[in-house]
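Notebook entry, structure prediction.
Reason for the run: the old model in the group folder had no record of what sequence produced it. Starting over properly, with the input documented here first.
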Amino acid sequence: MLRNCELRELGRTEYGAALELQKELVERRKRAEIPDQLLIVEHPHVITLGRTGRMGHLLASEEALRRAGVAFYPTDRGGDITYHGPGQVVGYPILDLKDWKRDVVGYVRALEHTLIDALADLGLVCRREPGKTGVWTDAGKIAAIGVHVSRWVTSHGFALNVTTDLSYFRHIVPCGLAEPVTSTEALGVQAGWGEVVAAVVRNFGRVFGYRSVEAVHQEAL
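New structure, fully documented this time:
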């Protein structure tokens, strides 16, 4: 059965505000008051720690983060530690997996599939890495994924480096892996923010089998 998904483009939004919006939409999705959602957002500088993350992977002191203008949030998503910031396309799908597949690992693989195909549309060859989560290139990791599922409804999601200032990753061991990170810009892709978002949304709709992924205004909450 083809389903619909609502797209909410939030622009640049503080991490805490986006987190509160996710929580509200998750509860509404559990009550079947709204269809599936896809939030697209760009965050100011922030480091988040997943529920299985290690504080030892945060390499900067609280004072150093404050001087650099970087916020810090512990979260309930899976995964370790990661950075979000300007120039990064962050997606928060709020889906009821009972209407798709009751398969959390399959859901994460589908997010990877979405991003790999979106990047292929932009001319980049990307891949999965065995035993790891996210999307990789020969130059390093280009997208991170960390999700939370409650009563089969998802939250949190993915972060794709587009024009991200990669120097901010020096504050952490990204996702607990001492390996390089990269971005579409660093790999020579000329596509701007809007083109990258369009490719992600288009492939998200196809991979998850939606009839449509239609934008809604925030006041429609």
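Summary: The chain has one domain: 3-220.
The old model has been moved to the deprecated folder.
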